[in-house]
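Can you give me the bound-state structure? Components:
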Amino acid sequence: MIIVFLAAVSFRIIAQSTVLIAKFDFENGTVDKWGIEGNRSNFTFTVDETNTHSGRYCARLTLTKPSEGERRRYMGFSMPSGQKISKVHIRFYLRTEGIADGDATMNGLENSSKGVVGWLSGNIPLIQLKPAAEWTFVEAKADIKAATSGVVLYLVIKNKALGKGSVWIDDLSIEGIQ
Amino acid sequence: MKRVVGICFAAMLAGAVWCSGVSNIAVTNIDFENGSVNNWGAEGNRSNFTFAVDASPHAGKYCAKFTPTRPSEGARRQHIGIQLPRDRKFSKVLIRFYMRTEGLADADAAVLGLENSPKGVVGWLSGKTPLIVLGTAADWTLVEKKADLNAAATGFVFYLSVENKALDKGAIWIDDIVVEGIPDTPEIKFSSAAEGNVFTADSGSITLAVPNADGITNGCIRLIEENGSVLREMQLPAGQSNISVELTAKGYYSVEASAAYRSGFTVTNRITAAVIGAPMPDAVRLQSPLGFFNVTAVSNFSINAGGAWNRNFIGMQSYQRTPTGFTGSNNLVIPTNEKMISCLWAPPLWIMDVPPDVTLGPWSYKVYTPKSWDELSNLIRYVFDRPRTVKYLEVINEPDAVWKGSQEDMVRYHAVVAQAVKSVDPSIKVIGPAFCSIQVSLLDKLVKLGLLDNLDGLSIHAYVQGTEPEGEFIANVIALKKYLASIGKKDFPVYFTEFGWTTMEGTWQKPVDELTQAQYIVRALSLISAEHIDGLNYFCMLYQTPNAGEHNFSILRKDRTPKPAYAAHAAFARHSAGTIESTRFNLSPTTYLVLMRKDDRSSAVLWDTKSNSFDLPASAACSDMMGRPIALRAGVPIGPSPIYFDVQDTKFAQPVIREPISVVTGKKIKLPLINVLGVASLAVKNGEIITTLDTVPGRYTLLGKNGASWEMQPVDVVSPLSASACRLAWAANDARPSLVLTVTSYFTSPVPVRTRTAFDAAHDLFQESVTLGSNEQCEIRTVLEDISKGRRYTGRSIAETMVGGIYHHSDVPFDFTIVSAGSPGTPADDGALPYFDISANDPFTLGDNAKPFAVDDCSARIAFTLSDDGLRFYALVTDDVHRQEKSASEMWAEDSIQIAFDVDRDEPWLPNSGRWLNGHRVFEYGLAKGNANALVYRWISYSDLPGMCDEPQVKSGIVREGSVTRYDILFPWATLGLAERPKPGRTFGLSVAVNDIDGAGSKRHGLRLFGGIVESKDPLKFGPLFIR
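Here's the bound-state model for the whole set.
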């Protein structure tokens, strides 16, 4: 028997040229390359395979006790050399448990060989994460300054009082738009 | 016999192949560019032919055209004298020219060379007349011949000769005649006591005659097997002119010799040989289904290789009607040491109802409905009413290509011929329809019209597209046998009167190398042996024809020495002799075992299309594909070259076949057999089959012994989730293209399946989960979002599920580029001129690794639109140095664009169909800004249009603006073989190559959109051009 399933998604032939900067599907079974800021003992950041968006693994940030400050995990990406990138397009899938609106954000910091350039799009946070019981698509586009040679993405738990709850992310990509 | 199809081998090489060699000495070059043939002389009555310049050349402005106008009493010849250099240092000449024909049959025309000296005629070039027998060529075809010169010759006369006296229409064109002297070099010569170095014994000997042996400083002789392994290497003894090389065992051998002389000169030569063992007794051989279409080989070669069957043609064209009956005759007495299938060639012109606007040569292969069915019947009776031993008769050769009437009349033609033959001799088996390839649906239509009602057997050609026999070849055979069973004709005799694989480009089939040809023949014959085919005429033993692709179906070389396939066939024939019944098993998805039951033993053929190993039964005697003994050891390696083994136990080939058992990848299952034999790729330990997630799914078979009986245990290793057939689709009504993945679930209960389109260099696309039931299959379509037109995307489509805490997935790779052509300004085209950049897709530098180029050096943006007028192609090529000084046919070597189309990409390939390129209209055009004007040239045309010619119908605007060359090209639909604008939703095959050269010494480099032009001429490598 042949059944045809057709996805209802929007389509456009894009005129702008895009270049992939990085993708994280966590299928290598590790988050070791993600950096940490804040007290390690009040949260964990691991791969998880109980309910992924795709593949075998996703990443899970789990709060274990309240903190004195923001809790952050981050990953840095270099801009592709020789390409004039004017914007970045960040996409990922999100799921939360025990997290309220405003508890968590995604921030982006631009830097160059001379140091920090500024926050992506001049905004902090870049994305306010909303509670999501099921996997939810999240995206944002941000302008990139000419001097920027790299971007650091931060997954941030802003609510210091939170002692439990989880954020899962999966299939994170960042593309440059020329 | 196969016809030369409309493709020029030289055209196939346009821009694809580079070669070099020792320089020959130019003697003459006749290109007719002075617009005259006045320096050519005529022989015979000029009023029955014309010879003039013609403006449809191979290259330049002119060629020469020889047109017979009415029958002649003798050969008609046109000639030109060629003077050799006075102090020539050569005793051979290379004669090379291009030709094409219309309305001529094979051997209707020839080239002769008559040597002369100041004292008069010396003799024929190479002592042969004719020097070259010309075949038919719908398109310009390169013909080359080396010829020996007599020492006294100071020149020779080149004759173009129409040998068929009866020819009163048609034409032959000739162009670019080049004669070169081949510098004399000492030559190592080989000889043996066996014709063609085929030794019908268990050993043989090749003798080398080494010139100037006293002057040799170094040299060696190497004996090489078919796979390139050096069996023996020995020094060439100094001072010894004649050396014997002993071939001490069965097998295929290449003998290579080289000698270095004190003068600094080195000569090399090679020859091949086969040691095949004693000929099979006739009583055994004639029971075999094996055979050949010998074509131009003598029968000894076929008989020695174990062939029982042969095939020939009965020509009827020369039969004439008289007031009282007919005149004409054929020899219908067949040698008794082979089983001949005779095939009737087309009937004479006068009996066919040929439309008035159609001109046919008398030897045309086309068959029209007869003017009178009674007259056809009477003629057939006359043809056969003479001494005869013909036992098998085919009615028409490849009627699906040559029959020009209705299907009803094709069936009636078979009936009338069969009834007429049987009225003369009821013992003759009349068979047909000898289709070009196995086409069950077409066969079914004709069967329903009564095709088989008057036939004693089914004959058909079993060609495939050069693919391996385990694929479409055996699938077609199985489908045919299944069809016959479905119509109550399970035991209807079946004859494959042609099938084969070529080893050179030049014809409709994709070539394979010589070793692969040998492997494919043995594997095909092994696979077929379980299907009960009554006759198997491999095409062919030797076909002497100028077309390299056609010739290289042969398993003998032109000098009648063997290719590996000859030795392999001989070994298979001997190994399979006496088979009562065959059975085929898959020991793994890539491992094949064919068991042959015989009176006194069991024989087997075993191979793996990749690589594996297998534990043979302890008592087996084993040999390789060429018949060489193999020392038995545990874990015999098996690969694409089959091995043979015999077991002195007739029960081995009659195993008890148990019910299949299934195991899911990653699981174990208890095996109900002990002491099993199996392939290494399926682990068996402690009575259990142990699979991992990496075990390749598919059918495996394990062998075991239970008392005196052998048992076979089929094991189906199943991946619970299987993804396959990832394809690109863009239907007319869809706004966007999709990637379609076929997914099958073998879980025992419904599971959620999700898919991910994982790009190597873009963000991934995801699909919502769908639920698939047990053994349910679905197509999951991912709409391609955020796709850049013209950009090459690679990655994997992944189907996945999580069941019981275990992650299961199945991946299929993809590699696609979206290119479309629509009306200018339509939304799909994103503006009036939808340019896209192909610079990064697939850059190339001949003879070097691919690397991207600087934008200023070589970059390109292209676009397609379409209208009722045709397909419009735009290109903006940025190139800092423009160079194009070649002729149109050679433009590919400098700055230019090659663009190829397959306008029938949506249609199935029909191997050997005789229609275009296996049912597809395929073109390759060249476009360039020349010194004076735009160059537009068509190298390849598989269509009714000629190839190797300028195409003025293509409207070209090619201008240079600074460092940019701007192309604006309109291909009217007629130049693509189409009558009108194609409907939206269709797909063309497309390939584009942008060639760049930056001055003297620069390597040709450039950009590609899809393959199939630069690296080889292969429409299967074209990509899709979606018509919107």
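A couple of observations. Residues 1-22, 827-831 of chain B have pLDDT under 50 and may be disordered. The first strand of chain B starts at residue 25 and ends at 30.
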